[in-house]
Amino acid sequence: MRYFTLSSMTKRILFTIAILLGWVTARSQGNKIPAGNAGKEILYGKDLIARTAYYFGPNGKAGHLTNGMNCQNCHNYAGTKIYGLNLSATATAYPQYMARTGNIMSIADRINGCMQRSLNGKKLDTTSKEMKAMIAYLKWLSKTTVKQPGSSSILKLAYLDHAADPLKGKAIFVQKCQVCHGVTGLGLLAPDKTVYTFPPLWGDDSYNDGAGLYRVTTFAAFVKSNMPFGTTYKTPQLTDEEAWNVAAFVNSQPRPHFDQSGDWKDLSKKPIDFPFSPYADSFSEKQHKFGPYQPIADAQKSTTKKN
Ligand code: HEC
Ligand code: HEC
Question: Looking at the chain, which residues constitute the CATH 1.10.760.10 domain(s)?
Fold first, then answer.
């Protein structure tokens, strides 16, 4: 009798383990890199995103195309960090209409947007092995089970009711950023001079003024959830005010220029914080760059209503 009780209990335990194992396998299957060439391509793509400078930087092994930064410097953990410019939903979102260019963009075009602006570099041939590998990685990533809580790659901040202040931002930079990014903001190259240990925040090797981070709202949101390094959106170390101010300071420092004369042909689609005129409204370049943004948003809303 006792034997039977134990046996049915054992059966029950074995059954539970089997279900758990099945569940774990099913969960991890979405995440598993396939064997063979397909898997190699995905891993190559991931490495290109994590160590871009090793391949494309000033001393790059696959050609000199970029400024020495890595995609991962911004798209943290190869694009998998929640609200760290997460890329896990990206592959399924393209091709996509982009108001900046007024065109339908493929994912390769969008990657090249970051090559030219965020990495202040040259476009990659869209048929190259490297472009294909990065896309293969992003496609694989979009099938993984780990998704960010919201649909956004970054957790936007509420607007301040006043302009962000670069001078106050400088004090934050000195207290909380320069220990890694350097007193001069130019970052720290690794001893092999190929990859940055701490990437630059301005200067010749930084993102140019056509990049997403050059917009104060994007920079403030990124920094709030991710900096100083080790921060997550659950453990922010800056107040919103500090994040806005340090964004205003860093984006007032010198950096490469990108010819954006072809962008935003439809002025009404320009983002509120786009720092270069002309605009569809009469607010100054300075207000567009540093805020306060709410009056601009309100004015845009009332124009849309009238039309
Ligand atoms: C200096 C920071 C920075 C670097 C470096 C950078 N990016 Fe980006 N990237 C951004 C920002 C900011 C956005 C816009 C995100 C947004 O608006 O939500 C973006 C957007 C993208 C998007 C579109 C995401 C989407 O879901 O629509 C892709 C794809 C992308 N980057 C790929 C890359 C790749 C690949 C590299 C390296 C070759 C790279 N980026 C380097 C900052 C950067
Ligand atoms: C403990 C070191 C450390 C501190 C302190 C720190 N950062 Fe960073 N930061 C990093 C590292 C490392 C990266 C690259 C992350 C990666 O590659 O995974 C980075 C990346 C960045 C990036 C994106 C890449 C670039 O260079 O444009 C920005 C913007 C940034 N940090 C801003 C800041 C700001 C603003 C502060 C202060 C509030 C700050 N960081 C404090 C280490 C630090």
Answer: 36-142, 166-293
Q: Counting ligands in written order, which one lies closest to the CA of residue 229?
A: 2
Whether domain 36-142 has CATH 3.30.1330.60: the reply is: no
Give the pLDDT confidence score for residue 305 in this predicted structure: 55
User: Which residue's CA lies nearest to atom 42 of ligand 2?
Assistant: 229
Residues 299, 302, 303, 305, Cα dihedral to 10°? 160
Distance, first Cα to last Cα, the chain:
83
Ligand 2 atom closest to residue 222's alpha carbon, by position in its atom list: 29
Q: Which of 241, 223, 245 is CA-nearest to residue 232?
A: 223
Q: Which pLDDT score, from 0 to 100, does residue 303 have?
A: 74
CATH topology of domain 166-293: Cytochrome Bc1 Complex; Chain D, domain 2 (1.10.760)
Is 27 a residue whose pLDDT tops 60?
A: no
pTM over 0.85: yes
- Whether 5 has a pLDDT exceeding 80, the answer reads no
Mutating to test ligand 1, I would choose from 46, 51, 52, 71 the residue with most ligand atoms within 8 A of its C-beta, which is: 71
